[in-house]
Every structure is written in structure tokens, then in C-alpha cells.
TrEMBL record:
Gene3D superfamilies: 3.20.20.210. This is 5-methyltetrahydropteroyltriglutamate--homocysteine S-methyltransferase. It comes from Mycobacterium tuberculosis CAS/NITR204. Residues 106-427 form the Cobalamin-independent methionine synthase MetE C-terminal/archaeal domain. CDD domains: CIMS_C_terminal_like (cd03311). Its EC number is 2.1.1.14.
Length: 548
């Protein structure tokens, strides 16, 4: 079938300008090109002279077209890459985000999309048919967003999403708003089974004429005091699910898309959005089959993601989501993305391999706790068991609780029941962590009375718990006034803060931020320790991280 891999024909694409049309060939046009080649082989060059002249003219017009060469975009990318498209230290980011978001241990969230109801599809069709105007369409989509926010608040989810009712497809939605893309009217191809999609055509240099998502996300945020994630599709996935120009390296095109996404993240941050998700479900999909080519692909793919996400401050939390993937070959690249939280599709593998692979991540990880591809509603206990399995590999301070993918294809009843059980599972496991933590701290209290308080030599090995990392003892100053860490002690290099729990006449250390101190005595890079990690304190030791 012609529509498996390329659309059937250019004929129905009435919005195509003549120049762009001359550069393209869908299925029917490719067949005609084969006929021309056969005629040339049979009858000679002169028999197809007109067709060859037409082809050469199309190639020449493409080279001259200003839409393919935007010097300003290319200069911006070059400058950003030259300055280093990197965010700040992960521990400093985590501290800034914790202070801003105030999330509980094992925070709950969803991936982005909520069910595309019949009301949404009817409204979209009515807008295309001219039966309703843009204002009425926006009103209906806002009503859908209001209902999705209300549902999440009833379910007591911690980080919310707006549900994406206004989006027909996670790539086409952005392609319709970016310069350098053409969104077809009838360019359908098969995705899988009976599902078809319309990949946009990326033909020129990409730029963002205006904000694409800010109005929708800020409306959703206005409905709740909880953080609402800004939702964007990453540059690699946009390339993977488009027909992409072939006159420059994919890496260059990826950076142009990344620059547009970067500008959107900055606008979302300026609008007060504290959490922004940049999805890259197709990161593994584009990995070349030839091993010799894989390192170069991963280099530019990671670079494009960092270009897209490095424009925001430390206090803005960047999430990403990966699905359709076996992650073993790209796990290092996923860590190199340096997202603050990475959610992955792991439910169908029952966490096997995924949670273990996440050990190398320095940041948050959300291995999906239930499979959204099935209508089955998993029990709270089943999801709690999945979380406990994940905690054997991922420390509790880095573990997030989420489904394994977006909820667009499920119905509202399935989603409501599944998310209710997911939140119940998170609360159950969270309570268990709190009980374990309290028991541990109760046995090792810091007694006030000395300028520097300390305990003896605790049995560290005996205190290991699932999801807990125990660090070497550190020297900790606990002055009574204001219960703050003494920052001026010469041995407190890198020790940032020690939130304390005051209980009766005892001070219990429940969280400490420590640092690995370089052997040469230079400044340490601090890293945060989550509140389910106990750091013992004793005199005479510099702050040190125990290596596993």
C-alpha cells in the first residue's frame, strides 16, 4: 500500500505553494518518477528532457529559497552552543526546586495527555468545518482543562497537567505553529495497526513566530495552587515523526527545533510555570542500526535536548518522558540529558531492568507503575509492590510515581480508577518510609549541649534499608539559636543545611546536605541528600560521600 510509509498523493494538498510542491513527491508522484526513469532507459535522454529540466529548476529554486536559510537562527544557535548549553549543578538545582515546590516524598504526577473525549473531537471537527469560531473552540477547550485540573485535585495528585485537549498530535500541534514546517491536509500514513498519523513536512529553517503553549498552561495554572507542568515535545521526537529536509545534517535541523523549544521554555518560566516537561519518546527510535554511527547520533541528540532545556533557571524543574524503548543501549545518553526528572515506560516489564538502570541517574526517576495501553485497572497494592521494587534500586528522594505513558487513548472512568489507586499506592509506600525513617532517627538522636554535637560510631551496615543510602559520618555544628548549621566552622566545607525535627528535649537530624571534598582541598560541589537518608554526625571528620 502506498500509504504505509508515504502519503498517497500531493493532489489533495491545496494549501501547498508551487515552489514547495515542486520539491516533494508522495506515493503517486514517486510512481510517475519511476515511469520517467523507465522511459529514459528505454528511449534515451531526449525522451524525458522536459521532466529533467523541470527537476533541475525545482532543485535550483530550493537552493535559492530564503525559507531554507535563516542567518539569524543559525547565529543564535552557534552562540548558545559556543557558550555551553548546560544548566547548573544538579544538587543546587534540586535545592532551589525543593524550596519552590515543597513536594512530598514519592511525588505523584501524570505524563501529560488525558482522554480525548468525544466532546473534544466534536469541537475540533466543528472548528475545521467552520461551524464554530476560534473563540468558541477556546472556550470549550478551557472547560476541558478545568475538568482535568479538578479531577487531579480530587485525586490529590501532586504535580498536575492540563491534559492537552487542544492538541491533535504531539508533533503536528507544534509543526502547525513553527515556521519551516508544512502540515498536510491528507498526508496520512500508518503508525501501527489501524492507527494513522499525518507527519508534518520539515522543509526549511525552523523558528517560532510566537508562543505556542503559554496561554493554555497559564490558564490551567490559574485554576490551582499546585504546580502545573508545561508540556512540550522535544527536538529529536519532532524530527523522528516528521518528513525531514535532506539538504543538511539532522544535527543542524535538530538544533533549530531545539532553539524554538528553548524559547518556549523561557516564556513558560517567565509566565510563572515551575515545572516544564520536554518529551523525547523517540530518542531510542532514531538510534542508527550501525554501531559505528550510534555515538555521533547520541552526541547530537543529547546536545539538542540540552539546547532546548538549558535556558531556564535552577528553580525551574525540567522533566522528560521516554517510551517505546529498550533503554540499555542509550541509558548513558538518557542520564546525559540531565533532566531533573525522567519518567520511563516500565510497567509492562514489571520494573525489570529499568529501575536497576536508573541507579546511574543522579536525578529524579519515574518508572511507570501501571500500563496505560491496557484497559485493566491495577490495584493499589499491585502498584505499591511496583514502587517497593523500584525502591530497591532508586533512593526514595529520587523516585517519582506516574503512569508509564500519556492517557489520551483511555476513557475517563479507566483513568479515574487507575489514578485513584496510584495515589493510594504512593501514600501507602510513603507512610512506610516515614515509619522506617522515624524508627531509625529515634535510635540515633543528637543531644544538645555541646558546640558540636555528635554520636559515636554507629553500625552503618545494620541501618541499610531499601531505597536508602547511608553516608560516612560528617562533622555537624548545631547551634541552638535558630537551629541552623554553623557555616563558619573550618571543617564544614560544602555542608549547606540541616533541617531539624525538635521533639521534646531532643534534636533529631532528619536531612543533611553534604558534599564530596576533593583531595586537593579545593571547593566542594554540594549535593543534596533526600529526607529519607540519615547522615550520622560525629566530630573529627570532613564531609565525605561513601562510594558504593
Amino acid at each position: 500500500m502506498l500509504d504505509l510509509h508515504v502519503p498517497y498523493s500531493l493532489e489533495p494538498e491545496t494549501d501547498l505553494d508551487d515552489a514547495l510542491r515542486s520539491w516533494l513527491a508522495f506515493g503517486a508522484e514517486k510512481v510517475r518518477e519511476v515511469v520517467v526513469l523507465a522511459r529514459a532507459l528505454r528511449d534515451g535522454h531526449d525522451a524525458v528532457a522536459d521532466e529533467i529540466a523541470s527537476s533541475r529548476a525545482a532543485i535550483a529554486s530550493r537552493k535559492r529559497d530564503p525559507r531554507l536559510h535563516n542567518g539569524q537562527i543559525r547565529a543564535r544557535i552557534e552562540a548558545i552552543v559556543a557558550s555551553g548549553a548546560h544548566r547548573g549543578n544538579a544538587a543546587q538545582r534540586r535545592a532551589s526546586q525543593d524550596a519552590r515546590l515543597h513536594l512530598p516524598p514519592l511525588p505523584t504526577t501524570t505524563i501529560g495527555s488525558y482522554p480525548q473525549t468525544s466532546a473534544i473531537r466534536v469541537a475540533r471537527a466543528a472548528l475545521r468545518a467552520g461551524e464554530i469560531d476560534e473563540a468558541e473552540y477556546v472556550r470549550r477547550m478551557r472547560q476541558e482543562i478545568t475538568e482535568v485540573i479538578a479531577l487531579q485535585e480530587r485525586l490529590r495528585i501532586d504535580v498536575l497537567v492540563h491534559g492537552e485537549p487542544e492538541r491533535n498530535d504531539m508533533v503536528q500541534y507544534f509543526a502547525e505553529q513553527l515556521a519551516g514546517f508544512f502540515a498536510t491536509q491528507n498526508g496520512w500514513v500508518q503508525s501501527y495497526g489501524s492507527r494513522c498519523v499525518r507527519p508534518p513536512i520539515l522543509y526549511g529553517d525552523v523558528s517560532r513566530p510566537r508562543a505556542m503553549t503559554v496561554e493554555w498552561i497559564t490558564y490551567a495554572q490559574s485554576l490551582t495552587d499546585k504546580p502545573v507542568k508545561g508540556m512540550l515535545t522535544g527536538p529529536v521526537t519532532i524530527l523522528a515523526w516528521s518528513f525531514v529536509r535532506d539538504d543538511q545534517p539532522l544535527a543542524d535541523t535538530a538544533n533549530q527545533v531545539a532553539l524554538a523549544i528553548r524559547d518556549e521554555t523561557v516564556d513558560l518560566q517567565s509566565a510563572g510555570i515551575a515545572v516544564i516537561q520536554v518529551d523525547e519518546p523517540a530518542l531510542r527510535e532514531l538510534l542508527p542500526l550501525r554501531r559505528a554511527d550510534q555515538a555521533e547520533y547520541l552526541r547530537w541528540a543529547v546536545g539538542a535536548f540540552r539546547l532546548a532545556t538549558s535556558g531556564v533557571s535552577d528553580a525551574t524543574q525540567i522533566h522528560t518522558h521516554l517510551c517505546y524503548s529498550e533503554f540499555g543501549e542509550v541509558i548513558g545518553a538518557i542520564a546525559d540529558l540531565d533532566a531533573d526528572v525522567t519518567s520511563i515506560e516500565a510497567a509492562r516489564s514489571h520494573m525489570e531492568g529499568h529501575a536497576e538502570a536508573a541507579i546511574g541517574f543522579a536525578n529524579g526517576v519515574g518508572p511507570g507503575v501501571y500500563d496505560i495501553h491496557s484497559p485493566r485497572v491495577p490495584s493499589a497494592e499491585e502498584m505499591a509492590d511496583s514502587l517497593r521494587a523500584a525502591l530497591r534500586a532508586v533512593p526514595a528522594e529520587r523516585l517519582w510515581v506516574n503512569p508509564d505513558c500519556g492517557l489520551k487513548t483511555r476513557n475517563v472512568d479507566e483513568v479515574t480508577a487507575s489514578l485513584h489507586n496510584m495515589v493510594a499506592a504512593a501514600r501507602e509506600v510513603r507512610a512506610g518510609l516515614a515509619d522506617e525513617r522515624q524508627q531509625l532517627v529515634d535510635r540515633h538522636v543528637v543531644v544538645p549541649g555541646l558546640p558540636v554535637h555528635h554520636v559515636g560510631h554507629p553500625d552503618i551496615a545494620a541501618l541499610e534499608l531499601p531505597g536508602r543510602r547511608v553516608y560516612q559520618p560528617v562533622l555537624l555544628g548545631l547551634p541552638m539559636d535558630g537551629l541552623r548549621v554553623e557555616q563558619h566552622h573550618p571543617h564544614l566545607t560544602g555542608l549547606e543545611a540541616a533541617p531539624l525535627l525538635h521533639r521534646r528535649d531532643q534534636l533529631l537530624v532528619v536531612q543533611v546536605a553534604v558534599a564530596e571534598v576533593p583531595a586537593d582541598g579545593s571547593a566542594a560541589d554540594p549535593f543534596a541528600v533526600g529526607d529519607d537518608v540519615v547522615v550520622f554526625v560525629m566530630a573529627g571528620h570532613r564531609p565525605m560521600r561513601q562510594r558504593k
